[in-house]
Amino acid sequence: MIIKNNKVNNTNIKLNIKVSVLVIASVLSLSACGGSGDETTPTPEEKVYPSYTDITASGGDTTTFDASESGHGFSTPSPNLTAAELELHLEGDLGFETAFTTAPNDAHPELDGLGPVFNNADCNSCHQRDGRNSTPQIAAGETRVKLGSEAGIFLRISKAPDEPCLEGTAANNYCAPIAVPDFGGQLFHRGVLKARPDWETNKFIGQADVYLSYETKAITYSDGSSVTLKKPLFDVENPYDAPGETKSSANVTSNLLQDDVLMGWRNGMPVFGLGLLEAIPEADIVAKVDSDDANNDGISGRANYVFDAVKAQAGDSNPVSLGRFGWKANTPSVRVQSLGALRGDIGITNPLFPDESIKGTALHDDYLTRTGFVDTGEGIDGEPDATAEFSDSVVFYAETLAVPARRNVTDTDVREGARLFEQLNCSGCHTPSFVTKAAGDIGGAEMIAGHKSQTIYPFTDMLLHDMGEGLADGRPDFLADGSEWRTRPLWGIGLTKTVNPQAGFLHDGRAATLEEAILWHGGEAQQSTDDFMALNAAERAQVLDFLMSL
Questions:
Q1: Could you tell me if 276 and 59 are in contact, meaning their C-beta atoms sit under 8 angstroms apart?
Q2: How many CB atoms lie within 10 A of CB 501?
Q3: Count of CB atoms situated within 10 Å of the CB of 177
Q4: How many CB atoms sit inside 10 A of residue 317's CB?
Q5: What is the C-alpha R_g of the chain?
Q6: Residue 17: is its pLDDT beyond 60?
Q7: Is 425 exposed, middle or buried (CB count within 10 Å of its CB: 0-12, 13-18, 19+)?
Q8: Residue 380 CB partners (closer than 8 Å, separation 6+)
Q9: Does the pTM exceed 0.85?
Q10: What residues have CB less than 8 Å from 180, skipping those under 6 apart?
């Protein structure tokens, strides 16, 4: 029995060995044919999504969640204002909408002071519904359009410097742009009735006529699809100091039309969330400066340091601050930006800027003489056109508009777009997040509690970057050179066309879509643009879906 049992056991062992060999052979065979054996199948790489992928409250506690699909999505007061702050905000809202008139206006003296030359009669015309202005359209059969009362775009002007200005001092006017003699630093295409000496033939014309036209080029992806890009061009004609003259005149005499005069388009920008941007600690912005590209990523953000009218008025011996606002970060605060535009774009003098922007020019001197000094930029009380109360309320309004919440953050394509946004290194300039300071002032006034210690997601580093020749206007502004632009915040950008269907993107409104805006990015952003173009159509759409969620 023992021997018999051994035979049975030996037989079972042999059978087990045969079965094991067959199993092993089968597994090896499957593996060789691409089967799913554990030993040879790689684990799919896990996708990593950036930390901001699921964020909805872009403005921290100042975020409004009621902006979706609303034409007034940028016009909501911050929800964390106190009752007194909300009252001041609403007062500023009225001021923002106010359309000013020519002085004197005896029936409504609080409304007079417009001009005498200007670009628009109210804030809203350049910042429609607190967003971007409408892009000028050229009529069918025409090649250009003359800027008029509907235009929210204008030209900055200055003289070309002999050499780059590297450090601002009182001796070099803090590297400010060099004013064009008898014109200034901004071209005003509109005027009150008698603004010009030749007003009878040029009624309501400002310093000169400005015409806009476009040139186009096509960009083609590797899959054969293409996008047509347009670039706005300008013609400046009929200057007040040489009526009828153009750049092609046989003998150009106007100060404005000389070869060393630099000009660049400027579009109106959205005005929500500005107080939060000013509340970002300066040290956190400066920490991102990489002027010499020390990390070799091709990106070299620079800070602009600019003249600060608030500091100058307070008697500061060095009235210079970090530039935060404007297309070239050429203004330091919401106060300087707002009241500078009130005086510049509209012609309304105020406590911070009490003199007309064209004071001392031949045009202004002649206007005052011809009209009997009835519109001097001062009221009968000797004070500026706008009171301190009006000015403060408008500034506060611009500081306290709510940031719209993100939308569709759980959508698969939006999430993939966030991942690709990071992969393309768009965040190399469009820094996703900051935390505002816990105490201090903005624009010379104590910041409100609602702006303190807020985690915000503006997607900007607030720095200057060289964006390449395609976007350059060749015009320096303080320390910014002619090809540098401040990184635009991206928060709320997906609602741009909801608020104003005719709005454009970039400093001159050239881009009708976000895709076009991306394709214009050159210079430090060229690698990101190239990588975007290398994506397939579905991936490109996902990047755009993410941007539209902001």
A1: yes
A2: 9
A3: 24
A4: 7
A5: 30
A6: no
A7: middle
A8: 109
A9: yes
A10: 157, 158, 159, 255, 256, 261
